[in-house]
Amino acid sequence: MLSEKLVNAINDQIQFEYYSAFTYKAMQTYFEAEDLSGMANWMNIQFQEEMEHAEKMFHFVCETGGKVNLQAIEAPRNEYNSILEIFEVTLQHEQEVTARINKLMDLAQEEKNHVAQIFLQWFVTEQIEEEANVSQIIAKLKRIKDDGRGLMMIDQELEKRSIPAA
Fold it and tell me: Looking at the domain covering 4-159, what would its CATH class be?
């Protein structure tokens, strides 16, 4: 059983996960327009993962006797000035997700809700990977600067990303 406070907090996170998904879908459109199919693929995978995260939380609330209240989703940003800017915004966004997940975990710990803590631990661990992956891409983009060949190599590398098997 989840407290009303915890249900409300997870509902807010569900909304944010959907917002995150649409943020990554908007970023994908930038890369599609630039014919960077690997980066578009990477963002599409991010979109799918965020949708999956929202669904996990949705089902968790339902399975623990809570009620999901879907909320309006703010329109994502659609314009960017560069590839590097997109990935820097992505890192900032993932850092915000990490902070939000940590607050959920803090609340679950404060309430001594072990079920919620176990559930949220997966997201805590996931955020380590999310931030590390984006940080690596940013480091590579900074290393190559304006080298088109390097950009194509990164794009080809990101084309290989796929949804991990569940």
Answer: mainly alpha
